[in-house]
Design a protein that fits this description.
Blueprint: H1 2-16, E1 37-40, E2 43-47, E3 56-59, E4 63-64, H2 76-95, E5 101-102, E6 110-121, H3 125-128, H4 131-136, E7 142-151, E8 157-166, H5 179-199
Parallel strand pairs: 3-5, 3-6, 4-6
Antiparallel strand pairs: 1-2, 2-8, 6-7, 7-8
């Protein structure tokens, strides 16, 4: 009985120290923030309505919009891994089922995709694998990011977004410190593909 009480107290203590990813302040990474509107609790978005004219994309390396010493939860190698993961999943989402092509040079019908990581929150594995704490959200990590699609030749902003939030209360990120951040990132990249498909009249 005493052990059970001690474990419950530990869970409450650890859960109380878990922050939540909040809407980030503009970092200056996007070329324009003025047209963004909130379309969900964790999502700002803008579209110029021109995405249908683009089927090739230059995916720039994901930028870290903070220094490792500003986020003590992760070291430089872990943050680099997360940047590469974001870039890889974005490319995978674009090219899945031969949907869109990757490009390396600017040209007509070629858009540039720019993404910056604003913040990352560590998954607390000891809480993340417990059903009682998983349901309450304790232990769930997450991330926030800014991104935009611009014309590769003119630099015109075609679409822009700011995303923030955690992983999943259903999917288990396990003991990996970046598990929930990766869940959020994968969800965001799928949304990019869905946005493009909708613009091109492609059914889900």
């Amino acid at each position: 009985m005493q052990i059970r009480v001690a474990l419950c107290a530990l869970v409450v203590f650890m859960a109380s120290g878990c922050a939540t990813i909040k809407q980030p302040e503009p970092t200056g990474f996007l070329s324009d923030y003025s047209n963004l509107t909130q379309i969900a609790d964790d999502h700002l978005f803008y579209s110029a309505g021109k995405s249908a004219g683009y089927r090739q994309f230059i995916v720039e390396p994901v930028t870290l919009l903070f220094t490792p010493d500003q986020n003590a939860a992760f070291n430089g190698n872990e943050l680099e891994e997360l940047q590469l993961y974001f870039e890889e999943k974005l490319k995978d989402a674009l090219t899945r089922d031969d949907g869109y092509s990757l490009a390396t040079e600017p040209g007509p019908g070629v858009a540039r995709l720019r993404v910056g990581l604003v913040d990352v929150e560590r998954t607390v594995g000891a809480l993340n694998i417990w059903l009682v704490t998983k349901v309450t959200g304790a232990g769930i990590g997450g991330a926030s990011a800014e991104g935009e699609m611009v014309d590769s030749q003119t630099g015109e902003q075609l679409a822009a977004t700011v995303r923030w939030g955690g992983g999943s209360r259903v999917l288990i990120a396990g003991l990996t410190s970046m598990g929930d951040a990766k869940i959020a990132i994968k969800r965001w990249t799928r949304d990019v593909r869905s946005m493009l498909d909708e613009a091109h009249g492609v059914s889900p």
